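Figure S4 source data
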Amino acid sequence: MPTPEFVLRLREKIGHDQLWLPGVSVVVVDDAGRILLGRRSDTGRWSIIDGIPEPGEQPAAAAARECEEEAGVRPEILAVIGVETEEPIVYPNGDRCVFLDIGFVARVGAERAAAAGVGDGELTAVAWFEPDALPAPLTPHASARISAARAWLADPTTPARFRLR
């Protein structure tokens, strides 16, 4: 995964120390109720679309941009479905970070859904899946966010998911 330039500049100053970063993720659903997933090039797992906002970028705009860059479709963002801190990550190069993720649910019409495909190389495959027939292996955070998105789609008065420990 390409590391954003602003993170590289921070790493020059702090080395491999743990870095707190904003993150966005988006569960994209098409008119048929299928869910857009991509197979990550770094782990080989299927996942929802996610990424890091650029400095000053609004989270919803970042989620839509990441989806367009990674999967070739620009979704309509509908709602926030959750805000939570991920588990700490240690990358192979020793960099440590924790993401504070803002999760969204979004939709695309049939015409835009047909345009989905691998975009910037962060994914090796992109496909639409029925919610009850998701592929394996699936990233752990994807399952929770898909459940939250499905709950919101079934009842838009469903509150966003916040992890309380």
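Figure S5 source data
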Amino acid sequence: MNNAEIGQVKNRHKALGLSDQQVLEMYQHMVLARKVDERMWILNRAGKIPFLVSCQGHEAAQVGAAYALDRMKDFLCPYYRDMGMAIVFGMTAKELMLSAFARAGDPNSGGRQMPGHYGSKRLNILSGSSVVSSQVPHGVGIALSGKMQGEKLVVLTAFGDGGSNQGEFHEAANFAGVHKLPVIFLCENNKYAISVPFSKQAACDSIADRAQGYGFPGISVDGNDPLEVYKVTTEAADRARRGEGPTLIEAVVYRLVPHSSDDDDRTYRSRAEVEEARKKDPLVTFSNYLKDAGLLDESKEKEIHDRMLMEVDEATEYAEIAPDSAPEDALKHVYAE
């Protein structure tokens, strides 16, 4: 590799139109998602919050994809693991903790939803459901509305590899393909639908292969690389705004922890497999890229981690003593008022 090629590798973000500050911000978003997630595991094991589904291992795919969108007019229809996306679109550590503790101030639902069900009208995030992949046809509906009203909005809807086998995904993909809707289908393939390995879920080699049946492009990408995910999502968003229809992106990742706080992943995957996957932890590999590019050193990295941890500490303390919803609030938003 000559000096010019080495320079290109070290400055891949600039070739994508990203500034030094932007990629550092992407890294900061990834770190914050990891710190919040790690704290939630501690709180769950301490009996302080009831449940969580983890984003650990998915941060690069989520941040890279969300960063490619226009946060002023585009929409997210995330699934329960998409903390990194929610953070990029503006959700704070304090708001995430209010949700985890189910406090009255929870912006997602006022403490009425399960954790991980992100939703904010202000931030263009559609409220999620516990029904797997139900957000996918909803995302297609938003895209249809945008097209009918002549708006240049793009909708990104995300789901796991298990979710890609649900009827909702296939019906939504078919409808979006027929009507050339401005929607991006992002499958975060972490290789397990809870305990079922990908080899027992689908006969195709890649989730991206399924796009061909619906008449639009499918692409598989390394989900541990936020720049690659950013690149393909930007291209998909540009394609959608030109009226050329949907794109299916398969971001291949690895879930570094159990499926949820109620899961024991030792029953279906070996510790050696998990430890091998940790060598590609996106926080480590992206940190190494930033160091190679001269944007990060040990001191700067520690400063970012310490600052994000302080933010999580403050959010935890705030949410832990925040008031619960009033019991009568359980009746709100059930019937027209």
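The domain at 27-320 is CATH 3.40.50.970 (Rossmann fold). Residues 2-6 have pLDDT under 50 and may be disordered.
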